């Protein structure tokens, strides 16, 4: 596929309700939509970097610069026949996985469309629908949290994930378990604790949680291994797994029993698949994390989550849990059995509504191959 043109668009999406974690509170989601044009086909990707360097060092602005100044020039005007070639061309850039992933995703979409195959099938997906869970931010009080949990359960979500931090954990879980004694429940600390809190974290063992996600530092593996050896509850790593070698090290050290795969965090679908396969060989189940994506990133998440070792409910919820109006049509909906159907059409399998994109665009650049 000859890479003729790449478009970058910064869009702003208002969230249905604010999303609060141990590192901050979001009321809107700014995101970069990447489009690659080749031979009358268009491929889309989404960069999941956030406004500030809190979840990861990348931000919307660093990703924009890295894409515009370094990554896109490396592929413009090139004939690229498959995703591994594109990854090779970008190989000189170290880090900046979210920027890298967005470009790789757009190429995968294009590539799958050129073959007339769905992204899911092309990646080796085996599921028609994926299990859907919901991630609930920190609320103003416990009463409010109980209400929010109740409403998501009534919609049919298969598991509830609660964001926690040192001042919003044990007491909250005690109340939640009083009201919902046997729902599939887990927590995510986004690195809000240290190994000195091990005794405190140990108290979480009494709540029958599916897992504790990223309790310790965003780049730690050693302390997580120490903590895991004292806990009954499985640890799941998110922030700490940025590369295939991080995953290898985590398995070797025993830092976790579950891995959350995010395509952006690990630098694309090829890396995501490699981590998936590695975990499968080692009997470590994975699931797909979320970054409050629009329908484009969501479609990509659904495709990877259709692989066989995605054995636990994913942070992939319906479009309307995040946005009043998605940029794709139709939006993703939750089936009554708590699943989301995997698109069957070629590529990411969803229709991007250009007019809705335009309405939300803050800035846009188009980089073209200069011939001759
Ligand atoms: O840690 O999983 C996380 C959202 C933004 C940044 C980090 C995380 C999250 C979520 C939301 O938990 C998952 C979703 O998109 O529903
Ligand atoms: Mg997380």
Name of the CATH architecture of the largest domain: Alpha-Beta Barrel
Radius of gyration: 20 Å
Name of the level-1 CATH class of the largest domain = Alpha Beta
**Structural class category:** alpha/beta
Query: What's the overall average pLDDT, rounded?
Result: 97
Strand order of the largest sheet: 5-6-7-8-9-10-11
The portion of residues assigned to helices is: 25-40%
Please characterize this protein's 3D structure.
With 372 residues, this protein is α/β, with parallel strands linked by helices. The chain has two domains: 5-116 and 353-368, Enolase-like, N-terminal domain (Enolase-like, domain 1), CATH 3.30.390; 121-341, TIM Barrel. It is built from twelve helices and 15 strands. The protein has a seven-stranded parallel β-sheet. Strand 2 (24-38) and strand 3 (41-47) form a beta hairpin. It is globular, with a radius of gyration of 20 Å. The structure holds 2-succinylbenzoate and magnesium ion (MG).
Task: State the main characteristics.
seven-stranded parallel beta sheet; Enolase-like, domain 1; four-stranded antiparallel beta sheet; TIM Barrel; binds 2-succinylbenzoate; 22% strand; 12 helices; single chain; 34% helix; binds magnesium ion; globular; 372 residues; alpha/beta
Question: What's this model, at a glance?
Answer:
The protein is an alpha/beta fold.
Topology:
Elements (H helix, E strand, L loop, with lengths): L4 E17 L2 E15 L2 E7 L12 H16 L7 H7 L7 H19 L3 H5 L5 E3 L2 E3 L5 H14 L4 E4 L6 H10 L5 E4 L9 H5 L9 E2 L8 H9 L4 E3 L6 H10 L4 E4 L7 H13 L4 E3 L6 H11 L22 E2 L9 E3 L9 E2 L1 H7 E8 L4
Parallel strand pairs: 5-6, 6-7, 7-8, 8-9, 9-10, 10-11
Antiparallel strand pairs: 1-2, 1-15, 2-3, 4-13, 12-14
Bound molecules: 2-succinylbenzoate (OSB) and magnesium ion.
């Amino acid at each position: 596929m000859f890479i003729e043109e790449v478009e970058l668009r910064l869009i702003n999406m208002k969230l249905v309700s604010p999303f609060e974690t141990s590192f901050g509170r979001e009321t809107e989601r700014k995101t970069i939509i990447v489009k690659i044009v080749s031979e009358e086909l268009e491929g889309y990707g989404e960069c999941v970097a956030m406004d500030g360097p809190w979840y990861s060092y990348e931000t919307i602005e660093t990703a924009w610069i890295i894409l515009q100044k370094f990554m896109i020039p490396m592929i413009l005007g090139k004939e690229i026949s498959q995703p591994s070639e594109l990854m090779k061309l970008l190989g000189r850039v170290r880090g900046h996985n979210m920027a890298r992933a967005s470009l790789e995703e757009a190429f995968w979409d294009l590539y799958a469309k050129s073959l007339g195959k769905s992204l899911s099938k092309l990646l080796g997906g085996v599921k028609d629908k994926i299990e859907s869970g919901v991630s609930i931010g920190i609320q103003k009080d416990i009463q409010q949290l109980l209400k929010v949990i109740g409403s998501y359960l009534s919609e049919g979500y298969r598991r509830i994930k609660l964001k926690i931090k040192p001042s919003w954990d044990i007491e909250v879980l005690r109340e939640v378990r009083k009201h919902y004694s046997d729902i599939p429940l887990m927590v995510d600390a986004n690195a809000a604790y240290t190994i000195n809190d091990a005794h405190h974290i140990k108290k979480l063992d009494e709540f029958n949680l599916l897992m504790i996600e990223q309790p310790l530092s965003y780049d730690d593996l050693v302390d997580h291994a120490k903590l895991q050896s004292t806990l009954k509850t499985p640890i799941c790593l998110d922030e700490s797994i940025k590369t295939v070698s991080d995953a290898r090290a985590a398995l070797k050290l025993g830092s976790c029993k579950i891995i959350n795969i995010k395509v952006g965090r690990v630098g694309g679908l090829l890396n995501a698949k490699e981590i998936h396969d590695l975990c499968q060989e080692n009997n470590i189940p994975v699931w797909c994390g979320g970054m409050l994506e629009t329908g484009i990133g969501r479609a990509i998440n659904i495709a990877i989550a259709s692989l066989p070792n995605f054995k636990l409910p994913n942070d992939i919820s319906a479009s309307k849990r995040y946005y009043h109006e998605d940029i794709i049509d139709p939006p993703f909906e939750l089936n009554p059995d708590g699943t989301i159907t995997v698109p069957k059409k070629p590529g990411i399998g969803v229709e991007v509504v250009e007019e809705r994109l335009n309405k939300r665009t803050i800035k846009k650049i188009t980089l073209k191959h200069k011939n001759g």
